[in-house]
Amino acid sequence: MPKLVESFSRQELETAQQTVPSMSSGTVSPLRDVPLRLSAKPSLPFPSPSRRLTNDCPSSPSPAPITLYLRLVSWVCSMGGLLFGYASSSINDLMRLGPAEVGVVISCFMVGAGIGGFVGGRLADRIGRKRSLVLFDALFIVFSVCTSLAPTFTFLVIARMFYGFTCGGISSSAPVLLAEISTIEFRSQSVSMSLLFIVFGELCVFIIGAVFGNIWYETMSIWRWINIAVVIPAVALLFCHAFLVPESPRWLAQNGQSQKCLDTLRRMRSDSLQTQKEFREIQQVVNANSEETNFVDILTVPWVRCIMLIGIGVGFSQQCYGVIIGMVFGTKLLEEGGLETKTALIGNIIIGVVSFFASWAGLFLVSRFGRRPLLMTGQIGVIGMNILMAICFGFFPFGPFRGWLTLALLLVFLTFGQGFISTVTWLLTAEIFPLHLRGICSGIGMSVAWGTAFAVTMLIPIGIHSIGMAANFACLALLGLISLFFVWNFLPETRNKTLEELEKQFQKRDWTALKREGQNERDRMVEEKEGKETEEGTAKETTEKQF
After folding, report:
1. How many other C-beta atoms are found inside a 10 Å radius of the C-beta of residue 489?
2. Structural domains of the chain sorted by starting position, each given as residue range(s) with its CATH number in brackets
3. Which of 2, 5, 397, 419 has the greatest number of CB atoms lying within 10 Å of its CB?
4. Residue 378: left if φ>0, alpha if ψ -120 to 50, beta else—which one?
5. How far is CA 476 from the centre of its chain?
6. Phi/psi at 21 (nearest 5 deg)?
7. Structure confidence at residue 531 (pLDDT)
């Protein structure tokens, strides 16, 4: 009999206790007062190996499904990237400007984006992620109109700088909000979706620019109509962000609004137990950082300073390899390669399509593989493509062959850049920073990214007419090697980790844990269940020994 008892799990025995028929009455009654004698060897507090092989058995819990409301909010919030992508490329190809003027018009947008990223991060900490996003949406509409109506080149540069300022604010507020409202399993897709919309916005501009450029290329003011067309979706997004998107539950908890935090979590989570657990984790982090914090902590607190340096490295890695060249100077590159202007405009559509599908693929890759291996794979790919581009421009003569070869290399370059590097770095900027400084730190990281993009966009047009394209791409390959060294040695792995778990690992300086993937939600639930069963089994055995 003892051996027979051993072959069942404790859960099955307890179930049997409640359903065995009573011998005295003939009815089913629980045997609550009958002690169950176990053998000296206790039964295992988890299912046998044969039962654990099946994923659909009751003892193998699965993560709670993503709610429709969370998916809707993520989509609406991510669509702010559409405004950025459209605005960054809306006037680059159809303005008749010299190389230096092109560099000024494009780079002033990046300067504004860098400043906006910093200010937006600061505002996100002070007034909330949602309010910051809505504010920059409204400013985006204003400066879109100002840019389109610019009467002089000087006015255009100033208006476009403020235009970039609003986009930088959106780029620092939206990813943080997305990261803080999402579940562990959905966070990578949710945050990366905003990057997908940025690329989609650029693709829309490429298509409109190619159509208008081939039909009304001689019309000098065509760029104004292309630029102002974005106002219509911008107004729609402003209302959606204002009335549909909730405030970040983590920001609410950080600012003493615990009940609103819990209410928001309940609206976006389908499992009440998961909601309570997540709420407790948030409260623990908030209580651990209950003292007044400010910008000086970034410089004085060692573990925060360490994270900030990593964030700066991530921002640099996002742009240093030259992705901005393909997305902003695509037409110019193809013309330098040897294609005619109208052919280059059509080639730009191909660039946009490939970039979009690469970003779309990255959306799924980043949720299935670690951030570190994906980022390093992308960096190795773009370094190789930069070297091949340098060879292409250095050894092949100007003409159609070099033009089409440039397009082919550029497509592979953007596949690695958009599908691997941009997706991962965009996500990391929203993940790695501590709750009490997440907005400002994320803003600084985005400012570094747009500052790097500014340097690249300012130097490339001038470099084309001085040191040449081959030397430009060789320099970008060197910067890529520096970035790869940083990622290999210092980048943490954030996959399958809660934001609170990451913060605790940084506080402990546990680099072994930081570079290792966390557990997925299913394994977490199984481990928690087994832990509870083990505790219950230990408590029961202790009680039996006492009697």
Report:
1. 9
2. 72-290+297-507 (1.20.1250.20)
3. 419
4. alpha
5. 24
6. -65, 140
7. 59
Q: Exposed/middle/buried for 355, CB within 10 Å: 0-12, 13-18, 19+? A: buried
The tens digit of pLDDT for each residue in 387-416 reads 999 999 888 888 888 889 989 999 999 999
Number of H helices, E strands in the chain: 27, 0
- The pLDDT score that the predictor gives to residue 274 is 80
Mean pLDDT of 428-435: 83
- Tokens of residue 426, six digits: 């965009």
DSSP of 501-535, one letter per residue?
A: HHHHHHHHT-HHHHTS----HHHHHHHHHHHHHHH
- Give me the pLDDT at residue 48, please: 41
First-last CA distance in the chain: 21
In the structure encoding, which two tokens stand for residue 446, read together?
Answer: 């985005």
Distance between CA atoms of residues 524 and 161, nearest Å: 47
Using CA atoms, how far apart are residues 213 and 221, in angstroms rounded to an integer? Answer: 11
Is this structure's pTM higher than 0.70?
A: yes
**Residue 296 and residue 98 in contact, taking contact as beta carbons nearer than 8 Å:** no
What SS3 state is found at 217? coil
Residue 224 in 3-state DSSP?
Answer: helix
In the block, which residue shows the tokens 């977490």? 524
Rounded to 5°, the CA angle 518-520-523 comes to: 110
